[in-house]
Automatic annotation (TrEMBL), chain A:
It holds the Pfam family BPD_transp_1. GO terms for biological process: transmembrane transport. It is found in: Cell membrane. It comes from Sphingopyxis italica. Gene3D superfamilies: MetI-like (1.10.3720.10). It comes from the Bacteria. The keyword Cell cycle does not apply. Belongs to the binding-protein-dependent transport system permease family. CysTW subfamily. GO terms for cellular component: plasma membrane. It is a multi-pass membrane protein. Keywords: Cell membrane, Membrane, Transmembrane, Transmembrane helix, Transport. Residues 70-291 form the ABC transmembrane type-1 domain. CDD domains: TM_PBP2. This is Spermidine/putrescine transport system permease protein.
UniProtKB/TrEMBL annotation, chain B:
Belongs to the ABC transporter superfamily. Spermidine/putrescine importer (TC 3.A.1.11.1) family. InterPro entries: AAA+_ATPase (IPR003593), ABC_SmlMolc_Importer (IPR050093), ABC_transporter-like_ATP-bd (IPR003439), ABC_transporter-like_CS (IPR017871), Mo/tungstate-bd_C_term_dom (IPR008995), P-loop_NTPase (IPR027417), PotA-like (IPR005893), PotA_ATP-bd (IPR017879). GO terms for cellular component: ATP-binding cassette (ABC) transporter complex. Keywords: ATP-binding, Cell inner membrane, Cell membrane, Membrane, Nucleotide-binding, Translocase, Transport. The gene is potA. It catalyses: ATP + H2O + polyamine-[polyamine-binding protein]Side 1 = ADP + phosphate + polyamineSide 2 + [polyamine-binding protein]Side 1. Gene3D superfamilies: 2.40.50.100, P-loop containing nucleotide triphosphate hydrolases (3.40.50.300). It is an enzyme of class 7 (translocase). It comes from the Bacteria. This is Spermidine/putrescine import ATP-binding protein PotA.
Length: 301, 376
């Protein structure tokens, strides 16, 4: 692959990369720059914003109230990522070691939810979790059945069924976010596990290790790059989650994105919203910097 | 060394099918304790499948495998008294050499000083003393293979299985490792079972070789028996280089036989064949068993003016091709019948390769006990 780098073939390289570059500058970097400037501005009237270079917005954004929301968003995102990892790892392993005939279909199954709009998927989840939802109805039927069996056996019936509050609380937010982000975790894990030399696993078994020890001592350490990728790719969008806490959360489950949205819409305080947005972006930068600083895990040869 | 009375591995009527493909077809063989056993065959012949069934990574579709008298059915790889050196070596890339070697010991519950001693001993055995704290990616392919060997040997298995152990090494290193593996096997006294497609490797290392063809044992013999007395055309052709001529058995007595070969003419043997008279047989003749010389210069000129020693077979031809390989020169000779025959000639002196050249008329002769008659 010689002679195809940008130095020897500038024009070809430009023809390929300029449209993308143009797109990124016009629709991503430029709007970001505007929002960044707003974060140093002050409201002057209903629509006027003066970029005065003030740091007041950042001062307000680091007040205790907002810091707790930041902290909570981090906690929720971290919990979601952890659950995704615990649930996703066995799923990724199952796909990796599945029959070759089945593997594409299993991968398709993981990606299938992406074919439906997030909003529709969220409403579908709400149908499942609501007081009159399928989950509660199913549980209720089980409860009634048990009660009926007890009566049949001559015992006291159970008290009347009270639906379990599954929706509009923190549980619903975590559940919804896990549901949405699981594929983001499974796919990089699958990519890492698929690259793993099978004979390493066989060698571990051959040397007397059981399956659990082989997974913990061989598979997990060697899948570390995939785990880090999966964690980052899950944690970052989960941190900025807006729709799920908005629709499925209760009054106490708002995350930082919901607060930002309120500043831009209801509160009409764009400079403050911009400052909150950039605090979130800085936090993500730090996360990515930490990731790139971690010790490199040697790849299998 | 090898104790013929005690088979350590008994393979009994083992078959393995993957879907409709039969990889191993009703194989039965015994591997003796302490011997260096080689499974030799072309790629896809089922030899690796057989090895993996001994290790427990594949389960036989039919048949039984016994290791040290114990039936291995239902026993997973981690509880079998065998260890394997993988073709890719499978050295754990995230562990230091010492941790790689200690991996199995730790699981077996060997701790502290004893574990350290055994790791050091195993590394010394494969000449890797002092490499304890290296990471595998700082080592060459040959060194990684030694790590894999040490990691298996440290477990003191009853049988060590090696899957194409030398295939990833360059030619020089491979030749050296052939010696070292044989030496190592003698030193530790563990039964080695090696899979290879390389006949040189098999001949130079093995006590006994099983040649596998299409999932079945084509011949099981010592290296020299395999080479000098191949049982069929597949073995004759796969092990070493050979000229094969089809012919009919025209004379078959206890002390002599003759075969009419298309292409080679009448071939005389000084022993009987005990085949059905007039049957189709094949004559296999190794290139190095044929003497080559300029017509009329042979030292004994007998048998109606033919320039061959008495009792030798005789043929004439023209040199059509030559390949100088340094130690030997290979000749491609067209016989008077138009058939081709390969002859190899050692370059015993420095100018031997100049004796012949393209287009030369040559005489050939070979002993009456050199050709092998194959019935199948």
């Amino acid at each position: 692959m010689t002679g195809q780098d940008w130095k020897t073939n500038r024009r070809v390289f430009a023809a390929v990369s300029l449209p993308t570059l143009f797109w990124i500058i016009l629709f991503f970097l430029l709007p970001m720059a505007i929002v960044w400037l707003y974060s140093f501005g002050e409201n002057r009237g209903l629509t006027d914003i003066e970029i005065s270079g003030t740091l007041d917005n950042y001062k307000r954004a680091t007040e205790w109230l907002y810091l707790t929301i930041f902290g909570k968003s981090f906690a929720v995102a971290a919990l979601v990522t952890l659950i995704c990892l615990i649930v996703g790892f066995p799923v990724a392993m199952a796909i990796t070691f599945a029959n070759e005939k089945w593997r594409p279909w299993l991968l398709l199954g993981i990606m299938l939810p992406f074919w439906t709009n997030l909003l529709i998927r969220t409403y579908a989840l709400m149908m499942l979790l609501g007081t009159q939802g399928f989950a509660n109805k199913g549980l209720g039927a089980l409860w009634e059945g048990t009660s009926w069996l007890k009566v049949l056996a001559g015992l006291q019936p159970l008290p009347t069924w009270e639906p379990v509050p599954l929706l509009f609380n923190n549980f619903a937010v975590v559940f919804g976010l896990v549901y949405v982000h699981l594929p983001f975790m499974v796919l990089p894990l699958y990519a890492a596990l698929d690259r793993l030399d099978r004979s390493l696993i066989e060698a571990s078994l051959d040397l007397g290790a059981g399956h659990f020890r082989t997974i913990m001592r061989i598979v997990v350490p060697l899948a570390a790059p995939g785990i880090v990728a999966g964690v980052m790719i899950t944690l970052i969008p989960a941190l900025g989650a807006y729709l799920t806490p908005d629709l499925m959360g209760g009054t106490d489950s708002q995350m930082i994105a919901n607060v930002i949205e309120r500043q831009f819409k209801k509160a009409n305080d764009w400079p403050f919203g911009a400052a909150l947005s950039f605090l979130l972006i800085y936090a993500m930068f730090i996360l990515i910097a930490l990731q790139s600083m971690r010790r490199k895990v040697p790849e299998a040869h | 060394m090898a104790d013929p009375a005690r088979p350590i591995i008994q393979i009994r009527n083992v078959s393995k099918r993957f879907g409709r493909v039969t990889a191993v077809d009703d194989v039965s063989l015994d591997i003796n304790a302490g011997e260096f056993f080689v499974l030799l065959g072309p790629s896809g012949c089922g030899k690796t499948t057989l090895l993996r069934m001994i290790a427990g990574f594949e389960l036989p579709s039919e048949g039984q495998i016994l290791i040290d008298g114990q039936d291995m059915a239902g026993i997973p790889p981690n509880r079998r008294p065998v260890n394997m050196v993988f073709q890719s070596y499978a050295v754990f890339p995230h562990m230091r050499v010492a941790d790689n070697v200690a991996y199995g010991l730790k699981i077996a519950g060997v701790k502290g000083g004893e574990a350290r001693d055994r790791v050091a001993e195993a590394l010394d055995l494969v000449k890797l003393g002092g490499f304890e704290s290296r990471m595998p990616d700082q080592m060459s392919g040959g060194q990684r293979q030694r790590v894999a060997l040490a990691r298996s040997l440290v477990m003191r298995p009853k049988v060590l299985l090696l899957d194409e152990p030398l295939s990833a090494l360059d030619a020089k290193l491979r030749a050296q490792m052939q010696f070292e593996l044989s030496e190592l096997q003698e030193k530790v006294g563990i039964t080695f079972v090696t899979v290879t497609h390389d006949q040189d490797e098999a001949l130079s290392m093995a006590c006994r070789i099983a040649v596998i063809n299409k999932g079945d044992v084509a011949q099981l013999a010592t290296p020299s028996d395999l080479y000098e007395y191949p049982a069929n055309r597949f073995v004759a052709d796969f092990v070493g280089s050979v000229n094969i001529f089809e012919g009919k058995l025209s004379l078959d007595e206890p002390d002599r036989a003759a075969i009419d070969c298309t292409g080679l003419g009448k071939v005389y043997l000084n022993h009987g064949v005990t085949g059905p008279h007039g049957a189709n047989v094949w004559v296999a003749l190794r290139p190095e068993k044929i003497y080559l010389h300029v017509p009329g210069v042979g030292k004994a000129v007998k048998a109606a003016g033919e320039d061959a020693p008495e009792g030798h077979n005789f043929a004439r031809g023209t040199i059509k091709g030559m390949r100088y390989l340094g130690d030997i020169t290979l000749f491609d000779i067209e016989l008077e019948t138009g058939a081709r025959i390969r002859v190899s000639r050692p370059n015993l002196s420095r100018r031997d390769q100049e004796d012949f050249t393209w287009g030369d008329k040559v005489s050939m002769h070979w002993r009456a006990d050199s050709p092998v008659v194959l019935l199948g």
